[in-house]
Specification:
Elements: H1 3-18, E1 23-26, H2 31-44, E2 48-54, H3 62-70, E3 77-81, H4 83-90, H5 96-118, E4 122-124, H6 129-136, H7 153-157, E5 160-162, H8 170-179, H9 184-187, H10 207-223, E6 231-244, E7 250-262, E8 270-271, H11 276-289, E9 293-298
Parallel strand pairs: 1-2, 1-4, 2-3, 4-5, 7-9
Antiparallel strand pairs: 6-7, 7-8
Helix pairs in contact: 1-2, 1-8, 2-8, 4-5, 10-11
The structure holds xanthosine-5'-monophosphate.
Length: 311
């Protein structure tokens, strides 16, 4: 790919499509939405409003970190607190696809409201090729796929969607991020799914369970920093297992799975051969620092037959 040409063409496309109107985009802090944010601001400057939807399903301190990353680039990020709206939409839902659909519908209806308020008629979105392939193949409902499966965003939610990254895979997005001058902490960041920690928690995604997995994800990210991997994270299982507290009393505790994979483009993946001392440290910290957890597992499954995330 000629990265400079890609940027030139897409800046022109966004300018032409939006014209003198207004666009809005959702920035999650991941590389795809970060690239779209930088590309959009390069194309239309302040005609683009960048919003961070705080759905309560993000990693620790994500809203503050994202705003602080984009401020030096002259891009203001408006943080909108939607935690209650998302948690009530997800309440009681355990089925993985129902959860993804509830997330997607809440995501777009919230955005519909924000877009209406802002007067924008376009939503700039960082959908990439694997998102479409997986949704159209029926593997899972990615949160950002609408038109490709016959949902008209204008009729349903009141805006048109612009998707400049639609033909790219992750390595291409990273190249564009670097060319746009985004810091390495963004361009090389591990992918994080749109429905956030809801994909890393089997069963109901309620505030208490999300908090457990948030702590575990943070520990995994800290302990695997510097390890070559496409993604390293933690997942909270729905079941519990019998365990023992330090004083010898019985505990029916939560189970955390550590997942660490190598991948080129997320279409296939291999488990990373983590060293024993890293695995032991992960167990020690996760079971030691998170009271509710009494068992830690490491996932050895490639994609296929598994997928990278758990729902
Ligand atoms: P799977 O779990 O399908 O994940 O093997 C492939 C890649 O996509 C990420 N992922 C998502 N990204 N919205 C996203 O933006 C989603 O709904 C979603 N689900 C999975 C996942 O983290 C991996 O990098």
């Amino acid at each position: 790919m000629d990265v400079k040409q890609f940027i030139y063409d897409n800046v022109a496309m966004i300018r032409e499509t939006v014209g003198s109107g207004k666009a809005i985009n959702a920035l999650s802090g991941g590389v795809d939405s970060s690239v779209v944010t930088a590309l959009g601001h390069k194309a239309i400057g302040d005609q683009l409003e960048t919003v961070f939807l705080d759905d309560g399903l993000m990693r620790e301190k994500e809203p503050e970190t994202v705003a602080a990353t984009f401020e030096p680039l002259g891009i203001r990020v408006k943080i909108v607190d939607l935690k209650d709206r998302f948690f009530s939409a997800l309440k009681g839902i355990e089925d993985p696809e129902d959860k993804r659909k509830a997330f997607r519908d809440t995501f777009y209806s919230s955005f519909g409201d924000i877009v209406k308020e802002s007067g924008a008629s376009y939503l700039l979105q960082g959908t990439i090729k694997p998102d479409i392939i997986e949704t159209t193949k029926g593997v899972k409902t990615q949160h950002n796929i609408l038109e490709q499966i016959g949902i008209d965003p204008e009729a349903g939610y009141g805006f048109k969607v612009i998707e400049p990254l639609i033909d790219l895979f992750k390595p291409g997005v990273r190249q564009v991020a670097t060319e746009l001058g985004l810091p390495e902490s963004v361009s090389q960041r591990m992918p994080f799914p749109g429905p956030g920690l809801a994909t890393r928690c089997l069963g109901e995604a309620n505030p208490e369970r999300i908090e457990i997995v948030r702590k575990a994800v943070k520990i995994v990210e800290e302990e695997t920093e510097g390890i070559t991997a496409f993604q390293c994270f933690a997942v909270l299982l729905k079941d519990r297992a019998t365990g023992m507290k330090a004083d010898g009393s019985r505990e029916f505790g939560h189970i955390i799975v550590v997942r660490c994979v190598e991948s080129e483009d997320a279409m296939t993946a291999q488990p990373v051969h983590l060293q024993w001392d890293v695995l032991r440290k992960l167990e020690k910290r996760i079971a030691g620092e998170i009271d509710e957890v009494s068992r830690v597992l490491y996932d050895l499954t490639p994609k296929p037959p598994a997928t990278i995330e758990y729902i």
